Amino acid sequence: MRNLVNKLPEQIKHAVEIADNAKLDNATQPILNVCISGLGGSGIGGTIVSQLTGDKASIPIIINKDYSLPSFVNKDTLFIASSYSGNTEETLIALEKAQKSGAQIACITSGGKLLEIAKANNYNHIVIPGGYPPRSAFGYSSVQLFRLLTHYNLIDQEFRTDISRVYSHLIEYKEEIMVDAEGIADKLLNKIPIIYSDAGFEGIGVRFRQQINENSKMLCWHHVLPEMNHNELVAWAKNYPETAVVIFRNEDDFYRTQKRMEFAESQISKSTSSYTEIWSKGNSIVERAYYLIYLGDWVSVILAEKQGIDPVEVDVIGILKDQLADL
Fold it and tell me: Which residue among 132, 164, 196 closes a domain?
């Protein structure tokens, strides 16, 4: 896993090349909304990309992480099925429903049933390299989402430019990120991590939580501001020495949210001895997001190593899939 995380910048560079060479047909009719369906490592890209592009998207982009679909999905919907293996059952069942609804369909996958369906129906699809744990193919899958959304002119073309600059940005800060990740991992070791961020970067917090869950084999939770100021903040009236707080911050977080973050720190710091602010770096929201993702990925792997556990192993998920196959 260390090697896979180490090569995320190169993966993103390769992903951009794949995206640039993708052959895609135009929409059959105007698209009025987008539904991105995917789970786990295949789905987090949709969550993050939808948030990064949300305020500049020309139409609503919603994320689906279930077997079912919203009732509004129809011929005016672009339905994007993202499954790294191509065999994620929830995504395949949702895809079947999208087909029945008449939605316009595009797929991102490395193979499996999803690729078979895409080819059989002449759906727009982008094939990415296989052989990785899905969460380690984040660079491949997330970049293709930018490609699809720009292809259909649903987001500004500047996002393709921004994503093309992520490789050099991560290479520039790589050594600094690794040093910071080591220190953060020390603070989280033998603690319950709690992750906070601005609501617009919730996907980054979710990614970090998922990486800690799968790579570090640790429970943790996340919340966002300003929402946590209306509930969870009250719970910090007690002392929680077993916790370690990490908050992701950005220079362009809304100014009132920044004030809320500062107040939250003043209260939370009284209840835990570990409170770490992590400021993103980058010239665009895309660069800043991938900076935090790369840092979080490194923290999760280093945490696993410090515990002497295998960050790749996720046997329990395979056991669940075997049991579901018997239904």
Answer: 164
